[in-house]
Amino acid sequence: MQTGTADETNDRNSNGIIDSIDDTLDIVEELTEAGVSRKNDIEYIEMKDGKHHPSTWAKVFPQF
Question: CB-based contacts of 45: which residues, under 8 Å, 6+ apart?
């Protein structure tokens, strides 16, 4: 999974973290609670200044 710090500006729960990052981290947490190994089975990359756009995805995709 990948999110970018410039994906959006929405912060529905006003915790200082944009929703796309907050929601993705929630998914990671739910997966680990369900028994998925964070170390072995989940890849999460947060791109500084990354946007929800192919130009950001192109930078991170080779890491996956």
Answer: 1, 2, 3, 60, 63
Q: Report the distance separating Cα 11 and Cα 23, nearest Å.
A: 10
Q: Are 43 and 57 in contact (CB under 8 A)?
A: no
Domain residue limits at 19: 2-63
What pLDDT digit, counting tens, does each position of 5-64 carry? 999 999 999 999 999 999 999 999 999 999 999 999 999 999 999 999 999 999 999 988
Number of compact structural domains in the chain: 1
